[in-house]
Structures are given as C-alpha cells and as structure tokens.
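Take a record.
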Amino acid sequence: MIPTIETFPFIPIVIRNNNPLQENKSSRSINPPQQILENANYKFMPANFSEAIFDAETGWHPAKHILPEPAQCGNKYIVTGKSLSGLTKNGSIELTNAVVSIVEIERIFSDGTCQEFFILRIECEVWGNAHKNIKIDKNNFKSVFSILRKEFPEIKVFSKIPDALEEYLADIVNRDYKNANIRNINKKTGWFPLDGEPTKYELGCDSFYHTSTIPILDTANIEQIFQQGFSFLEVGHNGAACTLLFIFAHIPYVLFWLREGAVDFTSILYLNGSSNLLKTATASVLANIWETNRTQAKLRLNSTKASMLNSLALLQDQLILLDDSSNSEARAQKNIEANLEIAIRTVGDGSFDAKMQNGNQEIARRTFRGAVVITGEEHPNLGRSSILRMVEVQISEGSFDGEVLSTFQNNPELLRQYFALFVKFLENMGTEISHYAQTHIQKYRESAAKILTVRRYIDSAAGFHIVIDIIGKFANFCRQQFLFESRSQNLSKSVFEIMQQNQHIGEREQPVRRFLRTLTSILNTSKTTMIAKNELEYAAAESAFIGFLEANEIWLRPAIYQEVVKTLQGQNESFSTSFDTIKKMLLTEGYSKGKNYKDKKEYLVRAKKGSRKRMLVLYRKKIENFFEEEI
C-alpha cells in the first residue's frame, strides 16, 4: 500500500541509516534503524540513500545535507562526524561529542630513559570546523577523555561504556602511531645520541634552561672565532694557573667522546687562594657558557644539598662553577664541607650516590657527566681520598689580569662563539677523537708515571694531555695550527707543573698520619698533655691530665686535637682537617674505638669513672704498628 498524508502527519521526515532517528533526551538511547522502519512502514526507502526525505506526491529524495558516513567503526563503537557512540545490543548510545587523533609523538630522553608524549588533535561538535591540540603522557592516553573534560568544559561524556572507549583508543593508536610525526628531545643539555642518527649537542627542554642559548655560528669566520677564544690564555699571561683552567674548560664537552673511547676524567679543579684574586670572576666567564644571564653562571656551595644536586644533574656536558668553599664561618662550615664532599664524590664516581627528589617525582640513581671547578680561600677539610680527587691550583697575586679579563666579561660572546665552534668540531670529529683517546691514553699514562707517583695524579695528567691534543685538532679544524703549536709546549708544561705541586700537597696532607705522629710526640711533654697511668689516677685529678692509659688503649679528651693543631702551627704548618673528620678517619682506618648502631656511629666512648666525659680511645698496638710502618 502506498503511504498517504494521513498516515504520515509530520512531513518531511528525515531518516538516517547511519545515525539515530529518535532520541530520548534523558537516556540518549536510540532505537535501531530497522525497528523504526518497521514501526513507520517505511519499506520502500531506497537503500542507497544515506539521508532521505519522503514527499507524498513525489516519493523519496536524497536530503540536501547528507551526514557523513561513519569515519571509524569497531565492534563496540562508531564514529560519525565529530561524535563517538557506543554500540549495545539495544542500539547505539552517544558517548561523547568529541573525537581525537594522534598528530605527533614527542620522545623526551634523559639519563638513558625515554618518556613518550602524544600531541592530540581534538575535534568537538560545538567548535564547528575548529580544532585544538593537547599534549599528554602516552601512559595517560587511556584516560584522555577525563583529561579533556577538565581542560575543555564544553566536551561532554554522556555515557560510559569502558569497553567501547578502550577499543576506540586502541584503534586510534594502531591507526595513527606509525604515521605520526616523531620529535626526539633531550631533557638535559648535552650530547644526544640516537641510533642511526648523528650525535648532536643540544639544549635541553627543561625550564632550567629558559635563559640559555647556543649561539648561531658564522662558519665563514672560524679563524677569528678560534683566535679570540684562544686569547683567553692572556688573562694569565700564559701562566700555569690560567693555562690549566683553560684546558679544563674543554673537558665537559669532550667527556661523552672520551667515555665512548673507554677513557674518563674524574677530577675536579680547585682554585685556592685568598680573596680579591679574581678566582671566581675568571672561572665565571668559562662556566655554564650557554647561560645568557651571567649572574646565574655560578652556584654556591652553601646552597641546599637538593638544589646543588639538581643543578649538577641539569648542567650536563658543561663547566660548573661552585663558588666559595671558605670554611671560616662556623655556621656555614658544616654545610659547605658536606656539599664539597658530595660534589667531589659525584664527579669522581660519575653518578649521584642516592635517590633524588624532583618535585613530587623520585628520580633513581643517575649518571653524572660534567666538569666542576671550585673556588675557595682555604685548603678544604677532607680526607686523603677526596683530596686526591681534586687538582688544586694555587692562585696568587698576578695569576689573573683583571684588565685582560674585562674583555671577556664585557663581551661574553667571544667565549660562547669559541665553545659553540668547539662543539661543532666535535660533532664532526667525535668518533675519531674517541678512537684517538682510546689508543693514546696508555702512552700518556706511562709518560706521566716517569714524573708522578700518585696513581690519581697520573691519570689526571694523562687526561689533560689527551684534551690538549684534542684542542690541537680543533686548531687544525679552524686552520690555526700554527697558533696552537706556538703555545702547545707551554700547555704541557703547565699540566706537569700543577700536578707536581698537587703530588707534594698530597704527600704532605695525610691527616691521620700527621695527627698521630704529632699527638704521640707531645704526650707528657707539657702541663696540658700529661697522661695518667690508669683511670683511677686520672679520675682523682682530671684537671691535671688530658687522658689516661689502659692495658691496650689510650684514652684522650677531645682537647687533644687543639694541642695537635697548636703544635703544628708552631712549626709553621697548618692542619685544616677538622676534629669531626679525624674521628671518622681514625675509626674507619681501625686506629680508634667506637660504637656502631643501625643508623649512626659513635666515635667517642664515655669514661667509666670521674666526670665520665666522652673520650677518644686509641688502640696502643695499632699506634705502635703505625710507627713501625713509618720507620
């Protein structure tokens, strides 16, 4: 029977084969199209009309505005236009008024790990033809619609069919992941190796670098760039102190390539001298060279441990300046010494020795790659192991020329351009340099061993000479080989001069041996250093004695430390190792008696009689053996 007007009072009526016809506003549920057709007796609608209008006189006609075919279908969902519906046994239910696609994948690398982010294109019905982009962690992609609702309130999620959403998002990844543009980014500044791609030196994406830039080079002017940077040696009139500092400034940029060649450099540079000698000012023009705000080019040793560690981690492949290790202020002494020890161990070990916190995120043990120069006015209170990890440079009046230095202070681009060119050279020659270092390091160790005896200083000297050779190759790259050769002999001479000075300091600075030798030489030699024969005698007249003897032990009040220091000063020798450090070293090396607990150690022992003061207890037999070894 042909339908009549009376049968269909609402004309025209639109039928969509691929979209809901009727909608219950409360449930947003939709009757299946076939059921609607049967209810309305619309059995004559042509099957190829995706949207049609019925006219009683002329029959079925395509609508002027035909809705798009489903853009994407799954077993449990359907996408039409800019909306997503879920499929159920009772029909389809609109899930959300937005659809997503992955347009770019951002991979951020840090310490050998990779974190992926999706750059998503979001389309929403209420935006018309407009779209918006959002960046989310790949691991949060399953929760993308929750994120979108918070970011864009106009995006709605009407119903939740988890299986449908999961299938839709999985299909998005399968469809877009292989075709999306990929951007690889380094979180930290430095060398950025990727498989199959040339290794590049790049600025990191962390906000720490927001005032940092690597200058654009004028490659037609490389000779002048090299000459201007190399003229930094004139700041010290080619003296050993300035020369070694300049060589050291190249190390952070070559560390990556040295390690590729199984060679490492694990010493820090310590500029030691009184105030107003331009130590910090000179080192500052070389430190953190990409930082355009030069007031931020140095760090303070009296900063918090967390702040210092974070800066050390982010200043990768750069020269780091830690300023003011002076321990003359009692309030800051403990913090400065602790931070100095941390910095030395971090460089020496090539890693951070504990987990670190960055905001609310815990960062696991991370590798360190950089070079550290420290300035200070006193010899640091450190044990022998830490001292051997430092290359100390004594700064005196005239070591640095302020007038020449002002040229680099007033025009920071001179050194920025020089080191940017050095990095460009390494990008081209890095692999060759790695091979060169690997094949020549042993030769330089053998050469250094003819002059030096301390293994750490031998390794440091060999490393310095490898870097000198790299600077020579850089000079050749810049067509300035003649300029380099005119200074090369002085570069090598400066290294051995400083290293021999350090070996002399290292031989002199053996805190435990010096302390014990001086201590035993002054016992019972004055009213302030008298020793009682036993504890009973000591307890009966404590003010007359500084300690007492037992069968196998020597008990001494802490005041003995001041007596040792006073004696050495009288011999025109300084003793800068603190009593706290001496206590730890004596216990660690087995010369003294202490107590161990789960979370701490006690380095002094309470006497049983008299005022029962805590005392330093030395093993008599160990002391006797010590002097037998000395002889």
Remarks:
- The two ends are 126 Å apart (CA to CA).
- Confidence is low (pLDDT under 50) at residues 1-50, 64-68, 356-365.
